[in-house]
Model the fold of this input.
Amino acid sequence: MKNNYKSVFDIIGPVMIGPSSSHTAGAVKIGRVANKLFGMVPPKVTVHYYESFARTHRGHGTDYAIAAGLLGFAPDDSRVPSAPMIARQGGMDLRFVEEEGESPIHHPNTAILQMTGDKTRVTVAGCSIGGGIIEIRAISLDGVDILPAGPLPIVIFRDYSKRMANALAINTDLEEKAPFTRRQVLRADDCDIYVYDIKKPMQPATIAYFEKKYPAAICL
Done:
């Protein structure tokens, strides 16, 4: 989607450990999103590749890129190529599966990450669309299926108190500091989930503001 590219530098590609902006830098970002949604480095991850990712993930460094993102590394971190070894040495059960057939989220560069812990199950379906830019097209969180518009940024707020005042507060803050194009309200057993598709990239200071004021908010 052309609206994902905010400047010519996005099209050229990011500063990164190569070889590919789509298969490496974008894959790191998918892994980082998964890390943020899980809330920590997940102990067990199965990565399902589709189409182009399934055919080329070894040669293009997608495996180490995904692992690096799961560990919270940036695309230009010198540890990216060693990430699978670092992850497994840290106790992560990390597996890669080459799936046959079309991507369930309709993009050739698709990775679906299934993460499990003692009591946590999170699934993220992302695709790398070029220039290190990604879309997150499906999330399963707290037993609830979320279908964002795709492009980042996305803000997810889990309100465990289920008090309307909390939702109104973050809604007002977002309208002022990070306007959104769409809001979804979903119900889990133990919380209400608010999903916001944000219009423009969020500055680091803005992300820090929301994550400090709203500890249950996830800024992707």
Remarks:
- Helices lie at 8-12, 21-38, 51-56, 62-70, 83-89, 164-177, 204-213.
- Residues 5-19 have pLDDT under 50 and may be disordered.
- The beta strands are 44-50, 93-98, 109-116, 121-130, 133-141, 144-146, 154-159, 180-187, 192-198, 217-219.
